[in-house]
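== Fold encoding ==
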Amino acid sequence: MSNPYFFGYGSLVNLATHDYHDPQPARLRGWRRSWAHTTLREVAFLTAVPCAESEIDGLIAAVPNADWQALDQREFAYDRLSTQNAVQHGMQQSPEISVYAVPQVCQQAVTDQHPILLSYLDVVVQGYAQVFGKDGVAEFFASTDGWTAPILNDRSAPRYPRHQSLGSAELQLVDDHLNALDARIIVAA
């Protein structure tokens, strides 16, 4: 029996945030990314949303011995769903692959009470830059909905528990994309 895999499309693309085995680029058909706002968490976070016309790049990695407990705990506000062979990857075998998504019934409208943490976004963009390059970062921003949410600049005191140090070029890459989106940045209190 082979190990199952997860498809990560946010912070799980950044290999510094986990140590799951056999990570490799992949593409999920029939889904988009969106910022989720819910009472399950204090801040907005990424979710996968079914969308027949869309595809998103991400990373697959093995979950040894199907021990989902640690990953399910990390992704506590999500449901773990089968991708039903919608993931394109370069592996010879076709393992079971799951994706995490916030249940639609738990999602709410965008509010200032649930901002996007810049420290979280930095980690996501760093991962996409490392795996997919600058074009992959541009595709991440283009294939993600919900950029009207405020972005809380917490870089000086990161609130995201798996935050990473970014170099000046990486920070500028994030900032350039946010400027192009005319994103609303708010300062942490």
The first helix runs from residue 69 to 74. The first strand starts at residue 5 and ends at 8. The helical segments are 69-74, 118-142, 168-180. The beta strands are 5-8, 21-36, 45-62, 79-82, 87-88, 97-101, 116-117, 144-145, 151-153, 185-187.
